[in-house]
From TrEMBL:
InterPro entries: DUF559, Endonuclease_DUF559_bact, Restrct_endonuc-II-like. PANTHER family: BLL0828 PROTEIN. It comes from the Bacteria. Residues 10-114 form the DUF559 domain. One of its GO terms (molecular function) is endonuclease activity. This is Endonuclease domain-containing protein. The keyword Membrane does not apply. Keywords: Endonuclease, Hydrolase, Nuclease. Transmembrane segments: none annotated.
Length: 117
């Protein structure tokens, strides 16, 4: 399912306004700095926008702030993860605090996930 035009516009806006943890992880992932893998930021898939996406590994990465602790948001996240899985995309999540406090550990977790595919 191709993204709708509004999703592309929203993704472009979000690329220009990354959160601090997203900007920090992007600095570690951009280009091909991480073992030859190419990541995209704020990448639209269907009606959703992934914080980061690696097409070759079919891997989405989400950085979750406190809002993701809300029960309604958690239910939405579960539906989104299930839909992405139906599209063949595995989604992994990291708390924003982990990106702030343990960036090397987050990158190692991403590499471990890619290595296991």
């Amino acid at each position: 399912m191709p993204p709708e035009p509004i999703t592309y516009r929203r993704a472009a806006f979000m690329r220009r306004h990354l959160t601090q943890p997203e900007a920090r992880l992007w600095a570690a992932l951009k280009g091909q700095k991480v073992q030859g893998l190419k990541f995209r930021r704020q990448h639209p898939v269907g009606r959703y926008i992934l914080d980061f996406y690696c097409a070759s590994a079919k891997l989405g990465i989400e950085i979750d702030g406190a809002v993701h602790d809300d029960p309604d948001q958690m239910a939405h996240d579960q539906r989104r993860t299930a839909w992405l899985a139906e599209q063949g995309i595995r989604l992994i999540r990291f708390p924003a605090a982990s990106v702030r406090n343990n960036l090397d550990g987050v990158v190692a977790g991403i590499l471990a996930e890619v290595g296991g595919r």
